[in-house]
Amino acid sequence: MLINGQTQTSFTSDQGKTYMLRISNVGLSSTFNFRIQGHKMKVVEVEGSHVIQNDYESLDVHVGQSLSLLVTLNQPPKDYYIVASTRFLRRKLNVTGLLRYSNSRVPASGAPPPLPPGELIWSMRQARTFRWNLTANAARPNPQGSFHYGKIKPTKSFVFSNSAPLINGKQRYAVNGVSYVNSETPVKLADHFNIAGVFSTNAIQSVPSNSRVTVATSVVQASLHDFLEIVFQNSEKSVQSWHLDGYDFWVVGFGSGQWTPAKRRLYNLGDALTRHTTQVYPNAWTTILLSLDNQGMWNMRSARWDRQYLGQQFYLKVWDPVKSLANEYNPPDNLLRCGKAVGRHL
């Protein structure tokens, strides 16, 4: 079901039945809150993870995120409002649709369901309730070879802080003081053919600094089978959303203010979700754990498209010195070459 612009959408269904809805935020920049008048929503899946099945009256869905929920039509037959509202913006935008019982003869009435109070704290607390259902499709707490992510000691730790600097008088976005620019030679081609001068592996440091903001084609290096702790630090007033190509990761912690090593005691090391995209609240931090089992060059970027386009991204190089088809296939014979890779032979 898609609620788009100001178009009113209707969803007709039968009383007494339970329906599964898939809710996705495919927007460019804004979180929205989703709710259905008079009905509870039971969340059953979040980006491929089966979750503990809690009931919710409303749900915050951040940029690039999706979830599945069950709605049972157990109310008197009539029409009910479906509402989606922007979050964390001064100007609130609302779109209203209808849940219509198939035997309804009564139009929707009353005020549409309101937004929940306490935007930041409420949303962060809700995010912590999304947890793996360990009795379903997830690693189970048993001795039969399950993957216990919370018992693995990270081999490397990074703190990536987003910022919005002006560079030469123009708005840019950056990670640890480095704003990404695309090179004419794709970084994977440059890496495969060992072409020097295309990207920098020392531009982005592992923690933020007060150094002058720079522009670079930035690549962060790591080794195959590393287990990473990555903290996304957000010191801005807007919600950030981070995505990593080629991987999912455990979202183990959310917190307000500046992250410190002492915050590790707040991590969920037992039943955190695996996701592909995570939110970072205003003036807050989010921590993920990541198992590097997929060799290659992988893009880590803002899921907010304006920020991604203007530099809030970099590539994560997952590398092993031993060349093996078990780790990474050879490129195809018809590989297209451009930039400095033109004329290079496999």
Describe this structure in words.
Keywords: Glycoprotein. By secondary structure, this protein is mainly beta. It is built from 3 helices and 25 strands. It has helices at residues 119-129, 187-192, 305-309, and strands at residues 10-13, 18-24, 31-36, 41-46, 49-50, 55-56, 58-61, 66-72, 79-87, 94-101, 156-163, 166-167, 170-171, 174-175, 178-180, 214-216, 219-223, 227-234, 240-244, 249-256, 274-275, 277-280, 284-291, 296-302, 313-319. It starts with 9 loop residues before the first strand and ends in a 27-residue tail after the last strand.
Strands of the biggest beta sheet: in what spatial order? 14-11-18-23-20-21
Spans where pLDDT lies below 50 across 5 or more residues: 1-7
Class by alpha and beta content: mainly beta
Mean pLDDT: 92
